[in-house]
Amino acid sequence: MPASPELLNAALPLISRLASVLDHNPGLGRDLAAFARAFADWAESLPSATAPAPAPTVAAPAPPPPVEVPARPASPPVPISSLPPLVFNSAPAAPPIHSALIDEHPELGVLPLPVLVQRCRVKAAAARLVVQQLAPGAGNTTAEEEDLRRWADRLPDCYLWMLAPDRPSTAPKLWSDLEGGYTTVADAAELLLAWEESGTALGPKVGEEVLSLAAEAQSTLLYAVADVRMVKQDYEQVQLYIHIREAARKHRLFVHRYLKREDRTDPGNWPQVVRRITETAAKFRAAEDKFKSRQKILGNIRYKLQKLAARPADYASEWPRIMQLIDGVIADGLPPSNVELREFLVPVLDSIPDDLETTENVQRVFREIDSYLAAREAEGEQPKPAPPTAEVAEVARLLRGQELVLIGGQARPQHRAALMRALGVGDVRWLSTPDHTSFTVFEPDIARPEVAVVVLAIRWSNHSYSEVQQFCAKYDKPLVRLPRGYNANQVAHEILSQAGDRLRAEVAVGAVGD
To answer: How far is the C-alpha of 436 from the C-alpha of 270, rounded, in Å?
Structure first.
């Protein structure tokens, strides 16, 4: 009975996929042919189910001698991946990229990046050997071919198809571009591996650059393979495409170019792609070294602060070194708002010595911490106030009904209200000191006759003591340096320590005048 059209239509896709697999593995084709011959011989030996007796044996003509096929060292047994072929149709320079490759074929294995790099390196060397063979007066390259085959045989299912004798393309330029395509994919895979092994701690910007270059590299190889017209697809290009897509999905990054059919590269530009990959790899290594160095410094700061928190008296001499480390890491590019650094410092802020010298970089860190604490208080996280001291009552007696100017840090409504209640002042004029703001903006507030004292929060201020002191001297107002927190006990202590005698004298004079 002849085969039905439905059966033929169902068989055609299987035959097409089988042909694609055999293109990459001639050894499999020879094994299938041997199996088919053995199966046919076995089928011929079976008795007929309808004939009453076996037919007489007729001597068959001797089969022709087998065709000798050059031997190739056997590859280790590996699963056969059934990839759908890339069909070139009428536009061989623009093969499609199957974005649904993995979705349609979940059984496909993904090569580890180190293996992919080695496969690309050996195939690049094989393409370079083809260029040598096509050169006029090329000598015997059998030994070189055998070396490459032994290299490939150590890798899983790595067939050097470019060393087959039948080559549709004989233009050395095309084979040189093929070598470059494999080189770009190998370099890009190494860069992608380094990025993934770093834990992607360098941020999404680095990841986008790495994936974009890898996408351009796989597109370069895709069209280099298309130009030589020898195989329908290349497994290495597909593998890098899979790694790019998976990394982009995992880290939620978008690759803008070279992953669509209409966005192709010119294989002849592979030297420029390799150069940019090399430059990016150098930048990546420098950034990674910088990141590791920064983490080491942060670890040192944390260790010293932990010792200080446990035994402050024994390790007080560590403070200058801690400030030096903070200054250096900020100068090296760490943001002053770094969360890790902030978490180290917040528990020990009130333990920092008053006379400790700090640089502008360290003050930037302190100002960021102050902004963070102010935001926390605005969200309802308010520290429990300490019981008022006798110094608070004394300052309240000296300042009652007058005003206080507080310069520095972020104005905190809760702290301001608490200071007004505790110190008995009519107002606390809290003036923030944003970066790049001239200290002259403070003059009108300092000049007010109701202001009895000016407090400069030196830890949170980006203005020097001498600048503010000019206005205090001009308008005869005492200036008090506040080295740490804003609580009423601390503010009262500093006011009495630095301006108590003057304020008492002024109150006494006022009482006599009354």
So the answer is: 48
| Confidence tier at 432 by pLDDT (50, 70, 90) | confident
Which amino acid makes up residue 457? Answer: A
Rounded CA-CA distance 336/249 in Å is 32
Tell me the β-bridge partners of 482: 457
Q: Residue 386: its pLDDT value, please?
A: 72
Which letter does DSSP use for residue 85 in this model? P
Residues whose CB is less than 8 angstroms from the CB of residue 271 and which lie 6 or more positions away in sequence, other chains included: 180
Q: SS3 for 21?
A: helix
Coil, strand, or helix at residue 451? Answer: strand
Q: 427: how many CB neighbours lie within 10 A of its CB?
A: 14
- For 136-156, letters b (16+ CB in 10 Å) and e give eeeeeeeebeeebbebbbebb
Quick: pLDDT tens for 262-321.
Answer: 788 899 999 999 999 999 888 888 888 888 888 899 999 999 998 888 888 888 888 999
Does an H or E element contain 481, and which? Answer: strand 479-482
DSSP string covering 238-292: HHHHHHHHHHHHHHT----SSSSTTS---GGGHHHHHHHHHHHHHHHHHHHHHHH
CB burial of residue 480 (10 Å; 0-12, 13-18, 19+): buried
What residues contact 405, with CB distance under 8 A and at least 6 apart? 428, 429, 431, 442, 445, 446, 451, 453, 454, 455, 477
Outline where DSSP puts E strands in 432-476: 451-457
Sheet of strand 451-457, all strands in order from the earlier edge strand to the far edge:
427-431, 403-407, 451-457, 479-482
Grouping H, G, I as helix, E, B as strand and the rest as coil, residue 91 is coil
- Chain centroid to CA 233: 31
> How many Cα atoms sit within 13 Å of 222 on the Cβ side?
30
pLDDT tens, position by position, 230-267: 887 788 999 999 999 988 988 888 888 888 777 888 99
Cβ 161 vs Cβ 236: under 8 Å: no
Task: Mention every residue, 6+ apart, whose C-beta is less than 8 A from residue 183.
Answer: 120, 124, 270, 274
Q: Among 67-76, 327-336, 432-441, 457-466, which stretch is predicted with the lowest mean pLDDT?
A: 67-76
**For residues 40 and 141, what is the distance between their CA atoms, to the nearest angstrom?**
40
Note the pLDDT of residue 82. 34
Q: How far apart are CA 351 and CA 342, in angstroms?
A: 15
Got the DSSP string for 4-20? PHHHHHHHHHHHHHHHH
Q: How many CB atoms within 10 Å of residue 353?
A: 11
For residues 227 and 269, the answer to whether their CB atoms sit within 8 Å is: no
Instruction: Answer for the pair 115, 156: CB distance below 8 angstroms, yes or no.
Output: yes
